[in-house]
Design a protein that fits this description.
By secondary structure, the chain is of the alpha+beta class. The protein has 16 helices and 16 strands. A hairpin with a 5-residue loop joins β6 and β7. The longest helix has 20 residues. The termini are far apart.
């Protein structure tokens, strides 16, 4: 039987239409758990962040965390969902060792929010860029289970252990419509969803700590078919890059199964990142298998108009709106705006610096290229940069005024990062001066022209690109201090006069 490891021809792949839906679990950044007063904090000694309620002991009753409700409603509004004024908690019944109650408090037929959407960049059939709207079926609240531990113990070959610290952690599950068609759309959807959630402050979205987890439902059908194929759920993927790879693998695996005359079965599959493939985990449960029924210990959740208004008043400016405003306000490119708004702190840093600088556009360019590149090489965050925001402003202003060249700026920034110094200190010590005196530059141009008659003849013969040679030679002669714009102008004028 074919698998994704067996290459499928482009002609075979082109016959099929993938259909993808995502289920994203987001841990809410509350101080305490969803239904008890235990600390909601990652880590700690196993089974120390627990109490009778999250351990499911007899007689312990849940009390809903108000902050968790407000975070859920805020997140729902940010992804354009309709808020249900009255929602209901249910018991989702299943038994796993890490679920001490043998059920999970969740929401089923009446979730807190429904019918949302997120816009993502994509491409139409001709390859032209478009904006595509991905529907969101629902956002509902629930609690997390504990964690099974299988490794790191002397007797781990014979036993597994359970850490219940995570039991009762407040979550929202965000379920998309099956509107995604490519692995790249999956990546873009998750990137934008994470951006939005981080801006609202409802979660830290730390995938390594399990604060954001994603399952992908993947199926394929022949192009033009009306009915979706049988889906498989891919679980336990811990990065957006791996999710994109897992979805691609699963699409090709299912097409291979069908092309070989087989039948795709509904199941849950695990992604193995080291092997780059998925493996069957278990048959996929249907909703009726969980025997949902209303949670008898919790009344219906009522989020009335006044409470909603109070929650919505805390909504920050979201990434898409901020990008549009910054493009208009600072005359920056869409690409720079996208980079600068990737996180709220980066956007805040840019705006703080831009308001002080003569050219916000130069500040944007410095932050997104020169500074970001050096931070990545040093594996530093923006907050750890030796070059402060005031240093960025000073560098941008010097460049804008023509006091230093871009080459000199690069050298000064290199020195700042090598010595862990701020830009102003490096500049005051090095004090490179850009030569903007036309007479001084013309003298150097004359010297270079006289020394290179062959290149002069090439220019006169119509090879105008040779002017770059003269610019380079003068720049070398001036030790990088000649004003680039003035130098280019004077070289062209001198050569034309030959």
């Amino acid at each position: 039987m074919s698998t994704a490891a067996t290459a499928l021809s482009p002609e075979i792949l082109a016959k099929y239409q993938p259909v993808i839906g995502l289920e994203v679990h987001v841990q809410l950044l509350t101080k305490t758990k969803a239904f008890c007063g235990c600390v909601n904090q990652y880590g700690g000694e196993p089974n120390t962040h627990t109490c009778p309620t999250c351990l499911g002991l007899p007689g312990a009753l849940p009390v809903l965390n108000r902050q968790a409700v407000e975070y859920a409603v805020l997140a729902a509004k940010a992804i354009n969902c309709e808020i249900r004024e009255t929602s209901v908690f249910s018991r989702k019944n299943y038994f796993y060792p890490d679920s001490p109650k043998a059920y999970q408090i969740s929401q089923f037929d009446k979730p807190v929010a429904e019918h949302g959407w997120i816009d993502v960049p994509s491409f139409d059939e001709s390859g032209a860029p478009i904006t595509k709207r991905i529907g969101i079926t629902r956002l509902h609240m629930e609690e997390d289970a504990g964690k099974s531990l299988h490794d790191g113990f002397a007797d781990s070959l014979n036993r597994s252990y359970i850490d219940l610290n995570r039991c009762g952690t407040p979550l929202v599950e965000i379920v998309s419509e099956p509107d995604l068609r490519t692995p790249d759309e999956v990546f873009e959807y998750l990137t934008r969803l994470k951006e939005i959630l981080l801006y609202t402050g409802v979660s830290d979205c730390n995938m390594e700590e399990g604060s954001l987890r994603c399952d992908a439902n993947v199926s394929v059908m022949l192009k033009g078919a009306k009915q979706f194929g049988t889906k498989a759920e891919v679980k336990n993927v811990n990065s957006f890059r791996y999710i994109r790879a897992a979805v691609q693998y699963e699409i090709e695996r299912q097409i291979g199964v069908i092309e070989d005359g087989g039948r795709v079965v509904q199941e849950s599959r695990l992604w193995n990142s080291s092997e780059g493939r998925t493996y069957s985990m278990r048959s996929k449960e249907q909703a009726h298998d969980y025997r949902y029924f209303p949670e008898p210990d919790l009344p219906p959740l009522v989020v009335g108009a006044e409470w909603q208004k109070e929650i919505f008043a805390r909504m920050p400016e979201l990434p898409e709106a901020r990008r549009a405003r910054m493009i208009a306000a600072y005359d920056i490119s869409e690409q720079d705006a996208a980079t600068l708004t990737a996180t709220q702190s980066f956007a805040d840093s840019f705006e703080t610096a831009a308001k002080k600088a003569k050219s916000p556009k130069r500040v944007a360019a410095l932050l997104t290229t020169e500074l970001t590149m050096r931070l990545r090489l040093k594996e530093l965050e923006l907050a750890q940069s030796p070059v402060s925001l005031d240093g960025v402003v000073m560098a941008a202003d010097l460049l804008e005024a023509g006091t230093i060249s871009s080459k000199q700026l690069k050298q000064l920034l290199d020195t700042a990062f090598e010595n862990n110094e701020d830009f102003p200190a490096v500049y005051e010590r090095e004090k490179p001066q850009q030569i903007s005196d036309a007479g001084a530059i013309e003298k150097m141009i004359d010297e270079v022209i006289a020394a290179n008659p062959k290149q002069v003849e090439q220019y006169k013969g119509g090879k105008k690109t040779v002017s770059a040679f003269f610019v380079g030679q003068v720049m070398k002669l001036s030790k990088g201090q000649a004003n680039p714009a003035l130098l280019n102008e004077l070289v062209a004028r001198k050569l034309d006069a030959q």
